[in-house]
Amino acid sequence: MKTGIDQGNYVSRYGWEQGLERMRRHGYDTLDFQLFIDTDNELFRVDAPAFFKTLEGYARLCRKHDVEIFQVHGPWRWPPVDFTPEDRAERFEKMAKSIEGCAALGCGNYVIHPIMPFGDNANPDPEAFYRMNFEFMNRLVDVAERFDVTVCLENMPMTALTLSAPQQIFDFVKDVDREKLKICFDTGHVAVFGLQPGEELRKIEPGYVKVLHVHDNDGHRDLHWLPYFGVVDWKDFSRALVETGFDGSVSLETGVPARIPEEVREPMELALAVIVREIAGLSC
User: Which CATH architecture has domain 2-279?
Assistant: First the structure.
């Protein structure tokens, strides 16, 4: 297993060169690339040559610092805007472009959320909700197959939705039944349902979980706390990773707050890197 962290906690904070050097020095192997999340990002406005040139620059920097881009997060708009066909077409276009960008970065795992046509806290028509996601994801996998990229559908913390909890995501992925559609397993989102990530991970057949988002919370809200600051049983989750044969990257979607003074921030970053290696079952 490897360990990783999302882009915001090193690269966005310290810049690409210093951030990659620092995260590698702290022991991380992989990066969660997140520049495609914001659909207002300049990457969605530039022409194709500039798009690929920019991404190759990022990929080159990662290779220089021996950091693997293990997952790329696709567009996520808040609040969700997926109700009309025009909304979904606009989102699909940007997702398709970022899948091609994922391949250009040399990454095979592309993380997305379910579409939410009725918003994040209502589901008045579960059949339509399921049908729209089924159609959308099949079309997206068609694109992903052309670039040898796996779409990883993430379990969500929205308790009102019927495609959100880990078992619902697993059942949906099995129903779609496409080789290039797998799962991003988010520990914090599991905890919002009052469930334990280790127990839920064991319910998913081996081979379906391709990437992880690792963080903690109070069992009610999606807070992205550091491990051991909330309700998650991390020792059990670590055992579940071994039992289910997960061999990817234990990737954090949390980090030491930027407001922490620099003189204590780096020791805290190093301590967090030790914790995630322990969760991954790696020697420290």
Answer: Alpha-Beta Barrel (3.20)
